[in-house]
Amino acid sequence: MTVEWKDMMLDKVAIGPVSARVYQGADYGKGPPIVLYLHGGAFLDSETNVDRPVAMSLAKSGAIVAAVDYSSLSGNLFPQAFEVSFSVLTYLANKRAGLGDRKSLLFVAGEEAGGNVAAGVALKARDQMPDALDGQVLISPLLDPFMGTSSIRKAEAIGMRQRWTDGWSHYLSGGGCHPYAAPCLCSRLSGVAPALIFTAEDDPLHDETLGYGARLKTAGVGVRQHVLPAGTGWPSIYGGKSEGTLDWQEHVSRHFGSFLRDVSVQPQLH
User: Which of 110, 199, 210, 238 could form a disulfide with 115 if both were Cys (CB 3.0 to 4.6 A apart)?
Assistant: First the structure.
């Protein structure tokens, strides 16, 4: 499916105007799913109006994907980045911002640092607006501020170890480590929206991604989990060095399309 995009301003968000790049398939159907997409960048990047390959891959499944600039208003700090993102989700849940219609399913998605914020937003949505969120898509989410897993040892080889260390220090520099800031530390995961989770065999975030998925399953949350083989260029989604051919996009688009169908058939997927 050909994907088109446009830049727009979400000017009625409670926290203030938020800019977004909106991706949509040229032939999306009636009542398309709406996805709030949160970019990666190790809590350090603040680029705006740039192409988001992950967002484009999600849009190829027929969704309308709003890639919002949560960084400019927040400085990539917690809780500001988190609150901007949740405010946009609340706005989309209530108004849809002219995207889709009242029957459109609502999802939050993000990769790496954006995956962390997406997971936190899903937790707060469970706490403050039950049943408003239909699913969460976590793409190698950066979840463990202690960086203590076995797979994270691969981060040095792809040039991400120090970047992630610096990113965590920046994001949490406001002090404390709330479960919304580090969802892997949350002790109560039941009742959150169904999750679609991606990682790869050569992903340094492999272990924390799958560990969080396992905890969600134990809590009774519906989880669809996909581990791409090494060599698909996966680390490139968050700026890591990769010698593989970049062919992860088709995997993300296909599995997200399947997830959409599952949720559409059984909204309270467990």
Answer: 110
Q: Angle at CA 40, nearest 5°, toward 39 and 45?
A: 100
- Find where tokens 């989309």 sit: 92
Which of 264, 101, 96 shows the shortest CA–CA distance to 194?
264
Strands (E), 87-176: 106-111, 135-139
Q: Is 0.90 surpassed by the pTM of this model? A: yes
Q: How far apart, in whole angstroms, are the C-alpha atoms of residue 268 and residue 24?
A: 25
C-alpha 139/C-alpha 111 separation (Å) is: 4
For CA atoms 148, 125, 238, 176, the dihedral sign is: negative
The string of pLDDT tens digits covering residues 199-242 is 999 999 999 999 999 999 999 999 999 999 999 999 999 999 98
CA torsion angle 20 133 174 15 (round to 10): 50
pLDDT, tens digit, 9 for 90 and up, residues 10-48: 988 999 999 999 999 866 667 899 999 999 999 998 776
Burial of 93 (0-12, 13-18, 19+ CB in 10 A): middle
Bond before 183 cis per omega within 30 degrees: no
Chain-centroid distance, C-alpha 162: 22
| DSSP code of residue 98 | G
